[in-house]
Structure formats: C-alpha cells, structure tokens
Hints:
alpha+beta; GMP Synthetase, Chain A, domain 3; 3 helices; 3 strands; BolA/IbaG_stress_morph_reg; BolA-like_sf; BolA
Amino acid sequence: xxxxKIKKYLISKINIKFIEIYDDSQFHHYSKxxxxxxxIIIISDDFINQTLINRHRIxxxxxxxxxxxxxxxxxxxxxxxxxxxxxxxxxxSNVKCVKKNNIL
Length: 104
C-alpha cells in the first residue's frame, strides 16, 4: 500500500476537489514497518450537509480493509470547498504581530 494508491482509490470513490495525504509514521514508535500513521486532508462538496461524524464514516468505510490490517492511526480533516476557503481566509486574517523587546 502506498500513499498514491490510497489517494487514487479515494478519488475513484468520491468527487474530490483536493486531497493531501501525509505519512506521519516516522514520528511514532510502533513495531510495524511502513505506513502506520496517516493524516489526510480532503476537500469535497460531497460533504455538503454531512456532519463531521458522517464525513469520517464515509472515509473510514472506504478504507476499512486497509485500516484494520495496516494503519494504526488515521487523522482526517474533511471540508467542503466553501469551508476550506473560509478556513484559509480566517487563518490569514488572524495573523498578529508579536512585539518582543520593543522590536517588531
């Protein structure tokens, strides 16, 4: 199993505007080798009117066979396109300068 294989599989199942998969396995002590800790960001309008729990259920059900056999931890960030745009705007508009020792 590779990140690219997971990405292609998810893209074949739902209408994805953006997907990014990160392998965080190296940050964890776990006895198995390979992909054990994944973080996935998915932007899809298929998530419109879906609760966060339902969004995660959709993705977990698609990856259930992979999860039970190989993946120890899966972090999901699921957004609609509008939610993602709002999140990006809030992130950039909340930038604050920190003043230390009277130097900006």
